[in-house]
Specification:
mainly alpha
Length: 86
């Protein structure tokens, strides 16, 4: 009799948790989605504020790659070649 009672309690607890989970899941998911949305908007606003405070409006800058050679002018010129077999 004790074994059946234990099994019944386990089954009832399982279904109770399942039922409560179905009731609370939409609320929890909505809350998490709102939290993530707020964090995304905060990050976007901080990025915009950082960019705006860095340069005045209308200021234009051009950034390019600096051409850095691996070899100094004393070593000579680097030539890339392919071997040709006859």
């Amino acid at each position: 009799m004790g074994f059946l009672r234990t099994i019944a309690i386990i089954v009832l607890v399982y279904y109770a948790i399942k039922f409560i989970g179905r009731l609370l899941a939409p609320f929890l998911i909505k809350k998490m989605a709102n939290k993530m949305s707020d964090k995304f908007q905060q990050g976007f606003q901080q990025a915009n504020q950082h960019q705006e405070s860095e340069k005045p409006e209308g200021d234009v800058t051009v950034e390019g790659k600096q051409n850095k050679s691996k070899f100094s002018s004393q070593e000579g010129e680097y030539v890339d070649y392919e071997e040709v077999k006859d």
